[in-house]
UniProtKB/TrEMBL annotation:
Residues 51-131 form the DUF4384 domain. Residues 1-18 form the signal peptide. The keyword Signal applies. The keyword Translocase does not apply. Keywords: Signal. This is S-layer protein.
C-alpha cells in the first residue's frame, strides 16, 4: 500500500509538471486537465468556414470562469496578429464567466476585413486566471497609428514557443487554449447542412450526398484525395466548434468511431460519429444523435 502511494504521487507530480505541448494543428495545448474552459468561433458555421477577400468577419470567445483571454490570428504565411487585447473601446480582455465576447466589439470604430493570402488561418484563444506579460510577443507602441500591439514573432512555432515560456511560471491548471480555423478562398464556400441539432460542413471540394436519413441519424458519402486522418480532423473540429467534446475514440485501418457530448438542458447532448474509408477516396460519415 505504501509503495503504491509513492508511485501514484510520483505519477501525479510528473503529470502536473508536464510541459505545454506545441501542436501543428492547435498551436499550443495544455496537457494537464483543468476546470477552466475557453471557446472560440466565428460568425459562419462549420469547422473551417470559408471567407472571400473583402468580407467582414466576427470572432467570438467565451470562458466558463472569470479569466483573461488573449486572441491571436496566424495567417498561412505565418504572420501573427494579436487582436485581443487592443486599445479600442471594446479591447479589454478580462472576461466574466459565461459572457460571450465579440471581436470587433459593437463599439469599435472598425470592421475586421478578410484579405489575402489565401489559405487556412488559425485563431488561438488563450485563457488564463491571471494576467500574462506578453511583452516578448507584442507591445503597444506610443504614437502608433492604430490600437493594436506590434507583434515581434513570426509563425505559429515561434508564437507557441514564446507562449510556452510565458505560461510556465503560473499554475498549470490555471490556463487553457482553444483554436478556431477559417479559410480565405477566391470564391468557393463549402455549404453547411443542419441535421436535427447537429451541423455538418460539406467536406471542402467534395460533392456530398445523403445516403440514409432517419429521425436519429444521417449517413453522408463523398470522395476526396485527402487522407482519412485529415478528413477526421476536419469533422472533429466541426463538432468541437459547436460545443461538443470528444469523450471516446476508436481508430482502426483508417476508420474512426467516436462519441461526443455537449452540455444540454436536463441531459447532455450526445453524438456518435463513424467515419469509414471505402475505396478510391470514397468515405461515408454517419452521425447519430
Amino acid at each position: 500500500m505504501k509503495r503504491y502511494a509513492v508511485a501514484l504521487g510520483t505519477a501525479l507530480l510528473s503529470y502536473a509538471m508536464a510541459a505545454p505541448q506545441v501542436s501543428p494543428q492547435r498551436i499550443i495545448v495544455n496537457p494537464v486537465p483543468t476546470n477552466l474552459e475557453v471557446s472560440v468561433w466565428l460568425d459562419k458555421e462549420g469547422s473551417t468556414p470559408a471567407y472571400t477577400p473583402g468580407e467582414n468577419v466576427k470572432i467570438y470567445t467565451r470562458v466558463n470562469q472569470d479569466a483573461y483571454v488573449y486572441l491571436f490570428n496566424v495567417d498561412p504565411n505565418g504572420q501573427v496578429d494579436m487582436i485581443l487585447p487592443n486599445k479600442y473601446a471594446g479591447g479589454g480582455n478580462f472576461l466574466k464567466a459565461n459572457i460571450t465576447k465579440q471581436f470587433p466589439d459593437r463599439n469599435d470604430p472598425f470592421e475586421y476585413e478578410i484579405s489575402a493570402p489565401y489559405g487556412v488561418n488559425k485563431v488561438l484563444a488563450l485563457a488564463s486566471k491571471t494576467p500574462l506579460n506578453l511583452n516578448d510577443i507584442a507591445r503597444f507602441q506610443s504614437g502608433q497609428g492604430n490600437g493594436f500591439a506590434e507583434v515581434s514573432v513570426q509563425g505559429q512555432n515561434q508564437l507557441a514557443q514564446k507562449l510556452s515560456i510565458i505560461v510556465k511560471p503560473i499554475p498549470q491548471d490555471n490556463w487553457i487554449t482553444a483554436t478556431a480555423f477559417y479559410n480565405v478562398v477566391s470564391g468557393f464556400v463549402p455549404p453547411v447542412q443542419r441535421y436535427d441539432d447537429v451541423r455538418a460542413s460539406n467536406y471542402p471540394g467534395a460533392r456530398v450526398s445523403v445516403q440514409n436519413r432517419k429521425n436519429d441519424r444521417i449517413t453522408l458519402e463523398f470522395t476526396t484525395t485527402d487522407s482519412a486522418n485529415t478528413v477526421w480532423d476536419f469533422y472533429q473540429r466541426d463538432l468541437e466548434n459547436q460545443g461538443y467534446r470528444l469523450t471516446s475514440l476508436n481508430q482502426k485501418h483508417g476508420d474512426y468511431e467516436a462519441r461526443f457530448t455537449r452540455k444540454g438542458g436536463q441531459e447532455d447532448d450526445t453524438v456518435t460519429v463513424k467515419l469509414k474509408f471505402k475505396n478510391k477516396g470514397r468515405y461515408s460519415l454517419e452521425l447519430r444523435w
